[in-house]
Design goal:
Length: 150
């Protein structure tokens, strides 16, 4: 399970004095704990794998934005820190699908759901999130779905 993998990586990083991995893994663990609290409020035992993957995708997106801002401000030290955190977080993510695989998946879901117009985009996106959470960057997928439904 992903949460166990992250905890084990944190322990190993602490033993090996890998401060970059320790820092990023602690951020992930804190985010997971917050997701667990939210899940318990909804009556669930803990956050699902999909919730954790979504959390990590959000963390990557935030760090990419920070990285861009630091680069523009010529703060190389802070930009490098953000980049190292991105790399650690990505190491826990499943292998990302290629553009061709994403397009094939989108076409398959469009056919399976019977989507025919932009009005059906929500159905297609929901199905994509259910099947491919963590394997696809949904900020870029929505544009592809919209193009294929137009």
């Amino acid at each position: 399970m992903l949460r166990d993998e992250i905890q084990n990586a944190l322990k190993n990083a602490m033993k090996n004095k890998d401060t970059k991995t320790v820092s990023a893994a602690r951020l992930i663990v804190a985010g997971i704990k917050n997701k667990d609290v939210d899940a318990r409020a909804k009556g669930e035992k803990e956050a699902s794998e999909a919730d954790i993957l979504s959390l990590m995708q959000t963390m990557i997106k935030q760090r990419k934005e920070s990285f861009r801002i630091y680069e523009e401000a010529k703060r190389v030290d802070l930009a490098e820190k953000e980049q190292s955190e991105i790399e650690v977080i990505q190491s826990f993510m499943p292998k990302q699908m290629s553009d061709a695989e994403v397009e094939t998946a989108i076409k398959g879901i469009i056919a399976a759901t019977g989507a025919s117009s932009a009005k059906d985009m929500g159905k297609v996106m929901a199905e994509l999130k259910a099947k491919y959470s963590g394997k696809v960057d949904f900020s870029t997928v929505s544009a592809k779905v919209k193009a294929l439904l137009s």
